[in-house]
Inverse folding.
């Protein structure tokens, strides 16, 4: 329990540092007395979008892998005679899935 709280406080502290750093690194602020050229700013934002798009793709892959693993476990539990119901699942969705089987 203590480790969790410690980790959360460190994460909060690090987030605060990230916020401060991101404000300092903003391309619209003056750097070394000069403003970033339009071409450099465009490149900066294009690079950021490319990186974020790749990260989003990796998150989607992780979510798909997790979903696949969950389906395998649910299928095996059903084979063993265990009824599985997730809190986020409505009764209507549950009925549709059962009718498809």
């Amino acid at each position: 329990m203590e480790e969790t709280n410690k980790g959360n406080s460190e994460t909060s502290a690090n987030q605060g540092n990230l916020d401060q750093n991101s404000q300092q690194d903003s391309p619209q602020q003056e750097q070394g007395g000069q403003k970033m050229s339009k071409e450099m700013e465009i490149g900066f934002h294009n690079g950021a979008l490319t990186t974020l798009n790749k990260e989003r793709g990796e998150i989607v892959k992780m979510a798909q892998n997790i979903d696949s693993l969950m389906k395998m476990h649910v299928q095996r539990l059903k084979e063993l005679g265990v009824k599985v119901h997730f809190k986020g699942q409505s009764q209507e969705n549950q009925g549709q899935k059962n009718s498809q089987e």
Observations:
- Helices lie at 2-24, 38-79, 91-100.
- Residues 38-80 form one domain.
- Residues 29 and 35 are 7 Å apart (CA to CA).
